[in-house]
Amino acid sequence: MKNILPRKPRLLLYGLACFLPRASSRQTTTSNATLACNQAQSILGDSTVQTPSDSDYAGASTAPWNLFNTQFKPACVVLPRNNTDVQVAMRSIFQFDVDYAVQAGGHSAMKGWNNVNNGVLISFERMDNISYDAAKDTITFEPAIRWGEIVATLESQGVAPVGGRIDDVGTGLLLGGGLSFLSPAHGFAADNYVELDIVLVDGTLVTATETNNYSDLFRALKGGANRFGIYPNSSFDAVAQAVFHYVRDVEDPNAALLLYFGALVLPDGTLTSFSIANMFYNGNSLPNSTYGELLSIPSISQSLGPLSWPELVASMAEPQPANGHGQLFGASVLAAGEDHDDLSFIDIVHKWQNFTFTFQSQINSTVLAFTPVPVSQITVGKERGGNAIDPPLIPYSAIQFQLTLPLGVPTISSEMEEGRQLFFQEAPRSPGFPLYMNECDVKQSVFETYGQYEFLKQTYMKYDPTRFNVRHTNGPQGL
């Protein structure tokens, strides 16, 4: 594969500032939401601000990938085409004290993070431009474009962005830090920012870089999520042990791994389980020293060979349409330094199996996924000014627990939700290491696990002293 990435893509994200969970009582009234919608519509026009009776309203409000997030009914949907439209929308939202949500690719399992009831939804579906500046080696793209489209567009120019591993994922990935197959060599996806255009809660547009007056905001957006940016039998034990050894021992920045254990309920009601290792190496062959243990485990099939970057991204496409399925995520993290052993990796797989077997009759599928984060990835971030996540210089694995409900099932049973939360409490987790925002549960306090937690609190208070974002939009808790 041709090397590799524009080191620092320039991204257009739309941001606010904020933190801490808001109170459960929401303040938006129907009249306030109507006033905000009417004001934005009078400035931007009917085609940009859509109400429930308009043609493009339903498409935007039901666009999220997660069934749970298609059940919200915003008072209106703003479909901006440029920065100015976003500013107008935020000014109206701020003036009338209205709840709001922001939607880019819509690929979030967190309920309420990309849609809103009786508030204003800002949908970026019309902002999907992308360009590459060869002289500066930078990418500029708008928030509606998805990683599959970005990769396909840039392939002809010999450019591979540090972005999502699944083609359908949108640019919101970057706000949670972003895990890529190129991360071991180039850091979290967000470590490759060069410049960010941010719309603050009051509608002010600022441009943040590593060195200008908004450098704190620039760093906070590397993992700060929507609080700062609008913008898984016995062979399984062997696999889990191999993943531990990979995380602990592999230091080659050209190597990346996404390994997951999956369980799927078949049409006849039986449960089938499997594990899949996605091994990526930026070179001419897979080194045995890197992947030998995994490849030595007996497998049903293997498909190894050279791929272009677009072919690799396409190979990660989800096997079935996810729309119409309720999705729930959760995160854990396990370190693999000298003071850690493989028992925790095996134990979390057993707990995932136990949950899946217990609730087999109520699920469509479950996944337990491991993404190794090597020291090289952490070091890149530090060399590029640091990020909000700021992990220790010890290799670890981000772990995702994903639950998919049967087609059309709109709610999770209280019994299964209790079991899911029990999994998060009892599953092994290494203290002092960060959870991954984009794969967390809404109840997990991810910010508190960040190395730059205190910095995030201070930066939030600077840019949103009235705590507008926390009071009026859903997002991560814990600050």
TrEMBL record:
<dbReference type="Pfam" id="PF01565">
    <property type="entry name" value="FAD_binding_4"/>
</dbReference>
<keyword id="KW-0285">Flavoprotein</keyword>
<feature type="domain" description="FAD-binding PCMH-type">
    <location>
        <begin position="70"/>
        <end position="241"/>
    </location>
</feature>
<keyword id="KW-0274">FAD</keyword>
<keyword id="KW-0732">Signal</keyword>
<dbReference type="InterPro" id="IPR016169">
    <property type="entry name" value="FAD-bd_PCMH_sub2"/>
</dbReference>
<dbReference type="InterPro" id="IPR016166">
    <property type="entry name" value="FAD-bd_PCMH"/>
</dbReference>
<keyword id="KW-0560">Oxidoreductase</keyword>
<feature type="signal peptide">
    <location>
        <begin position="1"/>
        <end position="25"/>
    </location>
</feature>
<dbReference type="GO" id="GO:0016491">
    <property type="term" value="F:oxidoreductase activity"/>
</dbReference>
<dbReference type="InterPro" id="IPR006094">
    <property type="entry name" value="Oxid_FAD_bind_N"/>
</dbReference>
<dbReference type="InterPro" id="IPR036318">
    <property type="entry name" value="FAD-bd_PCMH-like_sf"/>
</dbReference>
<comment type="similarity">
    <text>Belongs to the oxygen-dependent FAD-linked oxidoreductase family.</text>
</comment>
<dbReference type="InterPro" id="IPR050416">
    <property type="entry name" value="FAD-linked_Oxidoreductase"/>
</dbReference>
<dbReference type="GO" id="GO:0071949">
    <property type="term" value="F:FAD binding"/>
</dbReference>
<protein>
    <submittedName>
        <fullName>FAD-binding domain-containing protein</fullName>
    </submittedName>
</protein>
